[in-house]
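Per-record layout

source: Kitasatospora purpeofusca
name: Serine/threonine-protein phosphatase
length: 393
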Amino acid sequence: MFPIRRAQSPSDPTDAGQPPARRRGALLAVDLLDIPFWRRAAPALLAIVLVGLADLLSGRDRYLAPLMTVVPSIAALTLRPLELLGVCALGLLAVFGLSHHDEVDTINDARFLWGAMISYLLLTVFSAWVARVRMRRAAAFAAVSSVAEAAQRALLRLPGPVVGPLRLAVRYVSAADASRIGGDLYSVLETPHGTRVAVGDVRGKGLGAVQTAAVVLGAFREAAYDEAGLCGVAARIEASVERNVPDGEFTTALFAEFRRPGVVELLQCGHVPPIRVDQDGLAHVLDAPDPWVPLGLGRLAFGEPSSWDQAFGIEDVLVLCTDGVVEARHRDNGEFYPLAERVGPLVRGAARSAAELEAAVGRVYADLLAHTGGELRDDALLLLVTRTDPVWT
């Protein structure tokens, strides 16, 4: 759950769901008010200069001052109403000056001047109203964006950089326009049964996917504390999905449990297999010996899901992701992103510190964007996990 979209990383929310500074920043950014006034006014001021030069260079037999009416239209795109009136006042002075230069302010030709002035003033008033409407819409958009981020924080309950014996680094991008929430999900919990991780990808995107993600995450948070094994956790979530999610909807998921030194227990439910990167930078794709169907489709399968153990040492990095990462297409040839081929060198040595792990996830995400040309068309989640407990070898 990033045009280029910004990747989200864990941070501390306020009681309102989003820090006030970030809410103000969202409003400023969406209406360009985080840009200095002189830069926002530059297009309108440049139009004044260009019209003035065109009139002066064309000679007194060419009256081009009426072209100054483009100034209010341009100013309405970037300026506040009062700022627009100030800039347009300069344009009005320029109209007077050009009219005097072209000698159309005499008794006989004053009708041209009056026509230019009235047109300019009417368009200025209309443009000020447009600027006010634009600012109101920008404020509404910023409010929606703020609520969306608060909803994401309430839904995901983003973990800190360290949970139990695990160190985390994450990048999360929603493909939904003007939204920071999507159908990808993850959770990391310290439980009596060890530290448990869930990564999932809901079929589809948008509000329906968010609702399904909420069901899956809520069930995981309950079952992770109650169930002794990952299979029991998956069964509880499966039952909750069947009760609360419409038929035909499903969620791929991967569960991991860190309880014993040197080992991670995994359970795959139709999800992208994890990758273990060792201390030499070699990537090992951890395919399940007996993969299970996605959550929500369990009634269509025979048998039960089964977990398996994998070695996971102190120098290793576990790479978890959703299909938005591995199915991201190349900007030119349309090939999928080869995560297993590229991730090793990008995260090598990342287990040494939190700073290096965060830098590693940034490198992988930057490489992903370079592959796609800077745009992701699907929800994407990238989670790196290392062990902090020094007794692991």
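summary: The chain is about 45% helix and 15% strand. Residues 129 and 238 are 54 Å apart (CA to CA).
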